[in-house]
Design goal:
mainly beta; about 0% helix; about 65% strand
């Protein structure tokens, strides 16, 4: 099986920074697109950013210029560097990945990590 584990969330003041990590483990053959999403209680899950296997990136307009997504293919890990954080960035952040594993290909999700930005 495959597992995604996020880490790096926490409480930070507005204007501060956090770095999230997402580590994939298990019977992984290759990883295609990886991404970050977030959810505020009572609202739909929101797209944050994605990165392709070759490093191409896309960002939601709300985070463009403040967040940077990256990945290290050698250890199947993805990162989200979040700078100039705002209270509206408060959410549970989830990573996902399109993974070729065992004899199949599936989308996997992590369990989420809480990010809280105080004003």
């Amino acid at each position: 099986q495959v597992q995604l584990v996020e880490s790096g969330g926490g409480l930070v003041q507005a204007g501060g920074s956090l770095r999230l990590s997402c580590a994939a483990s298990g019977s992984i053959r290759s990883i295609y697109v990886m991404g970050w999403y977030r959810r505020v209680p009572g609202k739909q899950r929101e797209y944050v950013a994605t990165i392709g296997s070759e490093g191409s990136t896309n960002y939601a307009d709300s985070v463009k210029g403040r967040f940077t997504i990256s990945r290290t293919n050698a250890n199947n890990t993805m990162y989200l560097q979040m700078n100039s954080l705002k209270p509206e960035d408060t959410a549970v952040y989830y990573c996902n990945a399109d993974i070729n594993w065992g004899f199949s290909r599936s989308i996997f999700w992590g369990q989420g990590t809480q990010v809280t930005v105080s004003s």
